[in-house]
Amino acid sequence: MEWSDRGLILGLKKHGESSVILELMTHGHGRHLGVVRGGRSKTMQPVLQPGNEVEAVWRARLEEHLGLYAVEGAVLRTDALISSAQGLHGVNWLGALLRLLPERDPHPGLYERAQVLLSHLGGPQAAGLFVHFELALLAALGFGLDLDSCAATGTQDDLVYVSPKSGRAVSRAAGAPWDAKLLPLPAFVRQAPGSAAAGDEICEGLRLTEFFLVRDVFAPRGLTAPASRAAFIARL
Predict the structure, then answer these.
(1) Do the beta carbons of residue 31 and residue 98 sit within 8 Å?
(2) Measuring CA to CA, which residue among 73, 51, 72, 69 is closest to residue 60?
(3) Where are the domains of the chain?
(4) H runs (alpha helix) in 42-125
(5) Which pLDDT tens digits describe the chain residue by residue (236 residues)?
(6) Fold classified for 2-76
(7) What pTM, to 2 d.p., does this model score?
């Protein structure tokens, strides 16, 4: 078995005296592990860092085997990421989210979103991009929110709430009597990723995705939201 693909480095751990087990989020083969022989060498260490992007060739005798990786650096972001706490927390947060996906389950759309997010991780757009990424992740895991029309009236206008029970949008008029029980829906969430948003809107978006991630993904698996998420948000 052999394939080649582009991959984002999520993490690695020691394997034997000089090798590592590398965890990649690949474009066409999903989250995939493999051994890199000599991965702890001085030559490979700068390449094999979380957040970097590599060209990878995976080989194994059988598909179910761990297999071997041969990798070459494609986009090295280490210097940019370690220059700020926001970058370090962000790459750890992104890795924790991608590890929620089943191993070897392709999600090219999430891979491409992750690429964009890593490219903006140290900038002002990062938090809003994380909101959109978490919404896309919820959808990929089968818990997508329906934010296109009001759950009560069907209107597509003035959607300002989300029902915590159904995950559907609710208009201002329909939701006003239950304001205290509904989640705010900031306008940028329904716009294209990277759209401008005020700080309070970003915080509302992060609380929105956290509610559904905790209820539908983390809690059923006996997990809590990653500490890197809280650390990133604390720096906003």
Answers:
(1) yes
(2) 69
(3) 2-76, 80-147+185-234
(4) 78-82, 85-98, 108-119
(5) 999 999 999 999 999 999 999 999 999 999 999 999 999 999 999 999 999 999 999 999 999 999 999 999 999 998 888 888 899 999 999 999 999 999 999 999 999 999 999 999 988 899 999 999 999 999 999 999 999 999 999 999 999 999 999 999 999 999 999 999 999 999 999 999 988 888 899 999 999 999 999 999 999 999 999 999 999 999 87
(6) OB fold (Dihydrolipoamide Acetyltransferase, E2P) (2.40.50)
(7) 0.95
Q: Which residues share a beta bridge with 9?
A: 24
Backbone angles phi, psi at 52, to 5 degrees: -75, 155
**Residue 149 one-letter amino acid:** S
Nearest to 128 by CA among 235, 201, 51: 201
In whole angstroms, what is the distance from residue 221 CA to residue 202 CA? Answer: 27
